[in-house]
Specification:
Elements: H1 6-14, H2 19-32, E1 48-52, E2 55-71, E3 74-78, E4 83-88, E5 95-96, E6 101-105, H3 108-143, H4 149-182, E7 184-186, E8 191-193, E9 203-204, E10 213-218, E11 223-230, H5 231-243, E12 255-259, E13 268-275, E14 285-292, E15 304-321, E16 326-328, E17 331-337, E18 343-354, E19 357-362, E20 369-373, E21 385-388, E22 402-403
Parallel strand pairs: 1-21, 2-22
Antiparallel strand pairs: 1-20, 2-11, 2-15, 3-10, 4-6, 4-9, 5-8, 6-7, 8-10, 11-14, 12-13, 12-15, 13-14, 15-19, 16-17, 17-18, 17-20, 18-19
Helix pairs in contact: 1-2, 3-4
């Protein structure tokens, strides 16, 4: 046995012949004096860990939904008059301007009706002139009492009838002109036309509910995206609008971002255009709509896309690395180092990621020193050797967003 204190050596010599006396009286005194046995290991120093203050930064939350693109204008081009299709005047899938000629239906029958209607106008105009002359003569004769009042009334009614017949004939001409015009089917909007659904020489019917569908046209610039949000998201937006943190999309064109299936970042920016007036009973969701410019016509109706709607912010948030967060069953925690360099466990509520960091929604004030490296070497209540560092704000490779079911809503 090797002793570090002189008194320890004396006690050992005095009790060498009596081990019981050594255990009862001498051993506690030797331990109090710091006497060590030859095989006892020295105490380990506190573990070295990296500590830093949470990063304070203004952030903006974007809520993610799945949307489907739809055309602002979509038209089914149908025949408005019946007849044989004479020609198709567009290329399948081409961009057509408003007013561009698409189809021609044989106009000859309708042109003949128009000519007949014009002739009827001429005939009724002659009748009206004759009726006016007769009325003028009857008025002169009535003043000289050459005809009766009954005869004057007859001439007056004949003039009115001739005038009405002329007006009816003019209306018939207008109707016939419309039918002739309808034989030339033009595009009502600017957009991309589909294929021809009826080829030349076929009989098409028009002017009824069962009119022949000739083709379809959809506008491309701008374009809508429709998406749905659940009841929790709707209520959160409504309460944010009441508190003044975020205006309602019904009143303000809140920004919206769009990402296609093959895109790693949002490349399209638009704004909210419409929010439905009720919750769908079948799905428990509210429909929203955003509008996007589409000058390059990349976006087409029917595509699915990720929609990112302004959720909240900008607001001041605290951010820490994910490596600083521990898990204990359902709880998340960090180790906070006090002024005596002793670790204490602090429960937190993490939120979404911002770049490479995690937002802390609850649990930290911002002035704490938390362990950001060496978490596995720390236990609550134990001392540590801290090395000061700073949390760097590094963007992620792909833009980070919050979903409608983010941690702050759970």
């Amino acid at each position: 046995m090797v002793e570090s204190h002189p008194l320890c050596r004396c006690l050992v010599k005095a009790c060498a012949s009596n081990r019981v006396l050594l255990l009862i009286f001498a051993m506690p005194l030797m331990l109090a004096l710091g006497c060590q046995s030859e095989g006892q290991a020295p105490a380990l120093p506190p573990p070295t860990v990296t500590v830093a203050n949470p990063l304070a930064k203004a952030v903006t939350d974007w809520d993610e939904y799945t949307g489907r693109l739809e055309a602002v204008q979509a038209v089914e081009v149908r025949a408005r008059v019946s007849g044989y299709l004479q020609s198709v005047n567009f290329k399948d899938g081409a961009i057509v301007n408003k007013g561009a000629l698409l189809f021609v239906i044989d106009p000859r029958p309708y042109q003949a009706v128009l000519n007949q209607a014009k002739a009827e106008v001429t005939r009724n105009r002659v009748r009206l002139d004759l009726a006016r002359n007769n009325l003028e003569r009857a008025e002169r004769l009535f003043k000289s009492r050459a005809i009766s009042a009954e005869e004057l009334d007859t001439r007056t009614q004949e003039q009115r009838q001739a005038l009405a017949a002329l007006e009816a004939a003019k209306a018939a001409v207008e109707a016939a002109e419309l039918n002739v015009e309808f034989t030339r089917v033009t595009s009502p909007i600017k957009g991309r036309v589909s294929r021809e659904l009826v080829t030349e020489g076929n009989l098409v019917s028009g002017g009824s509910e069962g009119s022949t569908l000739l083709t379809t046209i959809v506008s491309l610039d701008p374009i809508y995206v429709y998406f749905t949000a659940d009841e929790r998201a709707y209520l959160r937006y409504a309460r944010l609008a009441r508190s003044g943190s975020r205006p309602s999309s019904r009143d303000v064109a809140n920004p919206v971002k769009l990402q296609l299936a093959d895109e790693k970042e949002t490349e399209h920016e638009g704004h909210m255009d419409f929010v439905d007036n009720r919750v769908d009973r079948a799905t428990g969701t509210v429909q929203g709509r955003a509008i996007f410019p589409n000058p390059d016509r990349l976006l087409i109706p029917g595509l699915f896309a990720k929609v990112r709607l302004l959720g909240e912010g900008p607001y001041q948030a605290l951010l820490i690395p994910d490596e600083a967060i521990g898990t204990d069953q359902s709880q998340k925690f960090v180790f906070v180092i006090d002024e005596k360099n002793v670790a204490a466990r602090q429960t937190i509520v993490p939120g979404r990621t911002e770049g490479r960091l995690r937002i802390v929604r609850e649990g930290l004030k911002g002035d704490e020193r938390i362990v950001v490296d060496g978490l596995q070497r720390v236990t609550a209540g134990s001392p540590v050797t801290p090395q000061e560092a700073q949390i760097k704000d590094e963007p992620a490779k792909a833009e980070s967003v919050a979903s409608s079911s983010s941690a702050k809503d759970s």
